[in-house]
Amino acid sequence: MADLRETGLALDPKYDANGLVTAVVTDAASGALLMVAHMNAEALALTLASGDVHFWSRSRARLWKKGETSGHVLNLVEMRVDCDQDALWVIATPAGPTCHTGAPSCFYRRVSADGALERIA
Amino acid sequence: MADLRETGLALDPKYDANGLVTAVVTDAASGALLMVAHMNAEALALTLASGDVHFWSRSRARLWKKGETSGHVLNLVEMRVDCDQDALWVIATPAGPTCHTGAPSCFYRRVSADGALERIA
Questions:
Q1: pLDDT for position A1
Q2: pLDDT tops 80 at residue A3
Q3: Is B35 on the interface with A (CB under 8 A)?
Q4: What is the pLDDT of residue B3?
Q5: Domain edges within chain B
Q6: Dist. CA B25–CA A53, nearest whole Å
Q7: A20-119 CATH choice from 3.90.550.10, 3.20.20.70, 3.40.50.300, 3.10.20.810
């Protein structure tokens, strides 16, 4: 029997035990991976309705509009969903550095084969 | 006090309660998001040592060399880690379609604002 989550054309996110799916954000212009976070149903609905990317903050246990404090919002350009619908690809235009450290992307360190990290300029 | 996980140059993954970090795979050539999966310490070590991307399969509860059955392996080109070290960015060259459905990427459907999905050619 075909799995409608995989073949269907209706959004039916497979939320985990905490009601979350993984959200992967890339930069619409450069294609770079900016951050990985989580959305609950409310964050997903708000993102689609407003065009401002929202997450569920696991550390603060609350809804989180990205950039609500810093102003570094993420404007949604396009969203995709993966085969089993437990991950979302958020293609966005960032209004500033995405990482709370001030780096453009949260992925500012390269991993060497020996486990050392190298900071990327 | 500075958080060494964020500022340091040592790989120190922040594994979740199940011993996993999120692994986001993009295509080294096209930059496209291919898949999102998970790694435990063993999968991460094997990936770095062999250059073949390994995951921990949550559904099968076992180590999983991507492409072990299909031959559609992922060859590691570069790995990065995010600020709080709970996500890895795996930049890889795929030997074939990444998705088990035969699609090049697991993210083969676009999400509309109204929640409808559209298959991408």
A1: 44
A2: yes
A3: yes
A4: 86
A5: 20-119
A6: 21
A7: 3.10.20.810
Nearest to B33 among A9, A89, A115 (CB): A89
Q: Residue B98 in contact with residue B105, Cβ under 8 Å?
A: yes
Residue carrying structure tokens 């970090």: B21
Residue A48 · residue A40 · CB < 8 Å: no
Distance from the B85 Cα atom to the nearest Cα atom in chain A, whole angstroms: 9
**Is A82 within 8 Å of B22 when comparing Cβ atoms?**
no
Model pLDDT for residues A23-45, shown as the tens digit of each residue: 999 999 999 999 999 999 999 99
pLDDT tens track for B5-14: 999 999 999 9
Give per-residue pLDDT as tens, A54-104: 999 999 999 999 999 999 999 999 999 999 999 999 999 999 999 999 999
B10 with A117: Cβ contact below 8 A: yes
CA distance linking residue B92 with residue B71, whole number of Å:
15
Picking from A35, A79, A111, the nearest residue to B11 by CB comes out as A111
What is the CB neighbour count within 10 angstroms for residue B108?
Answer: 21
Nearest-angstrom CA–CA distance, B98 and B118:
19
Q: Tell whether A95 is within 8 A of chain B (Cβ).
A: no
Contact B83 A99 (CB under 8 A): yes
| Calpha distance B15→B41 (Å, rounded) | 8
Q: What is the pLDDT of residue A8?
A: 93
